[in-house]
Amino acid sequence: MERAVLEDLAAASRILVDQGVFDAAGHVSMRHPDNPDRFLMSRSLAPALVTADDIMEFSLDCEPFDPKGRNPFIERFLHGGVYKKRADVMAIAHGHSAAVIPFGLVATPMRATYHNAAFLAAGVPVFDIRERFGATDIVISSAEKGAALADALGDKQSAVFRAIFTEVSARVQLQAAALGGPMAALDEDEGRKADVINLATVGRSWELWKSRVT
Amino acid sequence: MERAVLEDLAAASRILVDQGVFDAAGHVSMRHPDNPDRFLMSRSLAPALVTADDIMEFSLDCEPFDPKGRNPFIERFLHGGVYKKRADVMAIAHGHSAAVIPFGLVATPMRATYHNAAFLAAGVPVFDIRERFGATDIVISSAEKGAALADALGDKQSAVFRAIFTEVSARVQLQAAALGGPMAALDEDEGRKADVINLATVGRSWELWKSRVT
Amino acid sequence: MERAVLEDLAAASRILVDQGVFDAAGHVSMRHPDNPDRFLMSRSLAPALVTADDIMEFSLDCEPFDPKGRNPFIERFLHGGVYKKRADVMAIAHGHSAAVIPFGLVATPMRATYHNAAFLAAGVPVFDIRERFGATDIVISSAEKGAALADALGDKQSAVFRAIFTEVSARVQLQAAALGGPMAALDEDEGRKADVINLATVGRSWELWKSRVT
Amino acid sequence: MERAVLEDLAAASRILVDQGVFDAAGHVSMRHPDNPDRFLMSRSLAPALVTADDIMEFSLDCEPFDPKGRNPFIERFLHGGVYKKRADVMAIAHGHSAAVIPFGLVATPMRATYHNAAFLAAGVPVFDIRERFGATDIVISSAEKGAALADALGDKQSAVFRAIFTEVSARVQLQAAALGGPMAALDEDEGRKADVINLATVGRSWELWKSRVT
User: Fold this and answer.
1) Which listed residue, A118, A177, A187, C192, has the most CB atoms within 10 A of its CB?
2) Which of C115, C202, C208, C213 to mutate to test binding with chain D, by most D CBs within 10 Å of its CB?
3) Taken in order A91, A97, A100, A103, is the CA torsion positive or negative?
């Protein structure tokens, strides 16, 4: 595998910290470019510190290949569970970005309030681990829990782009909600059309963001 | 044309990133100082990275002169459409600043809540592309859409000044709204008078902001 | 006069920018330590850039002594007006800090919600220039307007300390208001007692803040 | 005592400033590792400036041993009072983090809205000095007041971890409250289970945070 792929995946982790999506925790992974039955993900490490040498390779059952003494994240089961069930998913960013979490706690659905978050217009599912597994430590720590979680994103750069603008759109919606009254947002049709344009600009944003963390 | 003009236009782009008005997107343009039938605008590039060599020259129909292989922004149609219809407009800043967008989503009008945003007291029009063009990708990507958009600002430094304090005033209004009850703000008369004073101080702020990005 | 006095006054200006109280505008002044009929204030300049050489000396009628070609702030009339009417005032910080302004727009009074802002418990007057002077440019630009404004603060370091924690307390109150229901805060008696303790710690904060801007 | 212990306690103080929990005030202390009848705490100093040489040793009655001319914090009575009454408490972080204070002013209880703040699900007591001591300067400045305050945290690194994520969880709850309607959060059972996992990751966060302040 090309070294540049590992370096980009590590940069994705650092970019998501730099852009305020990840804090001391957060994981970004990608399906192996040459072998769809494997995925790539950092060893257990603060996401701001991840470099290419920290990237490990896993089976879809989350078994590491050639760990070289590196300790994997328990959260890899979230990633493996999605890659196994959803062949279309090529990359995953899993974080706890501050403006998004409120939408998991209340009944208000997330909406597409920012042009670069147009993809949110298709709807944002909320996975509540309590409904299926009762009172747990809320970590996706097993293959069974990973399989129960079925959200996913596009390719690696798009996963970063979408994680960032999901946070931005959430902040806008929180402020608009404070003003009260009916609120406009992109509808599904607009969201689909605008997302095509947005994806065409991912490279431009990626280069900028990457320059800040390298 | 003087090199300093291009450098100032490029600095305007970087200033608006530094001051939190632009993110990975955002475009600032100006009417050509010697030829009112042309305007100047960066090639397609993250606004934080724009330098004088990235500035291209366009006709009011958005045709580039001497592109030298540089790729223009599709959003240039927003700029050309305004320069063509509004001879009084000398510069445009087009961004998606976070505290302003909520006022495009709800019925609450923007008000002048901050002295340097006194010009907002004259009213802030909201352009909803859906009313005229139905469900689109929400980009001003043609001459027809550009012509349908008719908001504009003063000279280049003022465009930067106003973009910054529109964001600041929006933040103040969002906070005041959270307190509830009737809200004061500058009325149209006060807004007009205070704006005269504000424009006289643009140079002082410009020098400060420019020093941060050069 | 000692050079250190001028350097501290200039540092106060830069500290208030660094701590988010001043933006591209904002003025801090002090009564002359040896001559109570004079005050010291920067020439017209962004507050982040003020150094000892920018400090000018004024009569209480706002006439400059020995201007050396330096251009004074029109806002000096706010400062002179207060020093003239209030012999107890030794220093003034005049800014537009973002979380404080909403309390000038709505009926909700500011309260002391943060221990270091205990002095707010004595009440915060709101001066509305419209009531006395009608629709103006809202600048305190004459001796008459300066005389109509009668708010003031203690010594120089305390003015900085109080400007900073007024902003902090305002942010806390805005957040508490969003939660709804009755809100506690220091009462006048607690405010007076806690302020004695706070003033005793100003030096410790001042040294820290100054180290960030020198 | 090992020098590394003093250096870690000093780093804890600087970390809490860097992470936005402490401002110009805030104190972190720990029980003496070899003598449970003593505790360690910085001399009176802005928490951003604390180094190992600033750490003083106190009896549980807050008498300093070998002060070497260093001036102790008056707030040491808060720390001594807790160590004396609660043998299980090994470290204390006392600050005024901005998003937490509103929950001391209104009736809304703090809840565990963020995975790393799972420990909040057990409930957050509010100590109102006014109920017991009337109108005071609100400082815990005596043994009697210290004894009246009985909140506490786990070991030193955990105290830092918990102070940080209490602030983060408070911010999330403030935003969720603004959306209105019923709000979910971890229940006590989930909180206990998730906290076990969280404590296992404290070291990873600690190394990251420490690297930012050393």
Assistant:
1) A118
2) C208
3) positive
Residues of chain A that touch chain D, judged by Cβ-Cβ distance less than 8 Å = 23-25, 44-46, 48-49, 74, 96, 98-99, 101-108, 128, 130, 135-139, 174, 177-178
ipTM of this complex prediction, to 2 decimal places: 0.81
**CA-to-CA distance for A21 and A19, rounded, in angstroms?**
6
What residues have CB less than 8 Å from A131, skipping those under 6 apart?
A: none
- pLDDT tens sequence across C37-51: 999 999 998 899 999
pLDDT tens for D11-32 read 999 998 988 888 888 999 999 9
D48-59 pLDDT tens trace: 999 999 999 999
Highest-confidence range of B12-21, B137-146, B155-164, C186-195, by mean pLDDT? Answer: B12-21
For position B153, what pLDDT does the model report? 41
pTM for the whole structure: 0.85
Report the alpha-carbon distance of residue B189 to residue A144 in Å, rounded: 66
The 3-state secondary structure of chain B reads CCHHHHHHHHHHHHHHHHCCCCCCCCEEEEECCCCCCEEEEEECCCHHHCCHHHEEEEECCCCEECCCCCCECCCHHHHHHHHHHCCCCCEEEECCCCCCCHHHHCCCCCCCCCHHHHHHHHCCCCCCHHHHHCCCCCCCCCHHHHHHCCCCECCHHHHHHHHHHHHHHHHHHHHHHHHCCCCCCCCHHHHHHHHHHHHHCHHHHHHHHHHHHC
Please give the single-letter amino acid code of residue B180: G
In A38-95 the beta strands, taken as DSSP E runs, fall at: 38-42, 55-59, 64-65, 91-94
**Cα C25 from Cα D143, distance rounded (Å):** 46
Mode of pairing for the β-strands spanning C91-94 and C64-65: unpaired
Kindly list the partner chains of chain B, i.e. chains with 3 or more CB atom pairs below 8 Å: A, C
Assess contact for B146 and B137: CB atoms under 8 A.
Answer: no
CB B150 within 8 A of CB C80: no
Rounded-to-integer distance, Cα A155 and Cα A133, Å: 30
* List of residues 6+ apart from C63 with CB closer than 8 A: none
pLDDT at B152 over 50: no
